[in-house]
User: Which sequence fits this backbone?
């Protein structure tokens, strides 16, 4: 009985350690980490707020916020997309689009409801996004217009209110080209040989057209 108690305690301890491991141990691809760094920096700089009409900086709406983060990381978007056009535009750049439930969100994914909202997923049910204008002026005096939302405040992530997960994966490296074989030199046509009488040695004789 004592053995089983110790075994159970050990199992619970291992489970506790595994639960405490940070989900963010998974790093997104480098280019997406660059986009996340840009997004978190803008979220923490409250000179940037939410504005649906003036969405090209310094204020952003949810979709232009995602767009400019990707542009800052070198993705070739012509300009800010909307939530309605985001999926097609990003798939055109090589992102994969998964329906909600098809894969588990992981750091760097973009969670999208095309009719409503888009956020960057940071892991552990935390997201960074542009949410709303709470002070009716440029900037973010409440600190809540563009911010990182923890699980307790991030309903969109926690309650899975998105319908699509857009994920960037590094393109596979091009396979090395097959080695081209050295060309074999062509010889010939060979001259006819005429045996020397009695010597066994052959005499070369060019046959000329006469
Ligand atoms: Ca902010
Ligand atoms: Ca504002």
Assistant:
């Amino acid at each position: 009985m004592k053995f089983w108690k110790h075994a159970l305690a050990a199992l619970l301890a291992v489970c506790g350690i595994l639960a405490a491991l940070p989900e963010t141990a998974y790093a997104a691809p480098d280019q997406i980490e660059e986009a996340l760094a840009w997004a978190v920096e803008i979220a923490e700089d409250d000179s940037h707020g939410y504005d649906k009409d003036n969405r090209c900086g310094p204020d952003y709406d949810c979709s232009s916020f995602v767009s400019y983060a990707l542009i800052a990381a070198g993705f070739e978007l012509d300009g800010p997309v909307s939530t309605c056009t985001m999926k097609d535009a990003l798939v055109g750049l090589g992102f994969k689009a998964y329906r909600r439930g098809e894969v588990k969100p992981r750091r760097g994914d973009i969670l999208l409801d095309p009719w409503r909202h888009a956020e960057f997923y940071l892991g552990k049910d935390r997201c960074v996004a542009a949410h709303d204008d709470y002070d009716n002026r440029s900037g973010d005096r409440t600190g809540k217009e563009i911010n990182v939302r923890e699980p307790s405040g991030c309903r969109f992530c926690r309650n899975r209110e998105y319908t699509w997960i857009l994920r960037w994966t590094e393109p596979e490296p091009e396979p090395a080209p097959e080695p081209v074989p050295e060309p074999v030199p062509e010889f010939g046509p060979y001259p006819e040989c005429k045996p020397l009488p009695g010597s066994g040695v052959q005499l070369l004789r060019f046959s000329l057209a006469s």
About this structure: Residues 2-20 form the longest helix (19 residues).
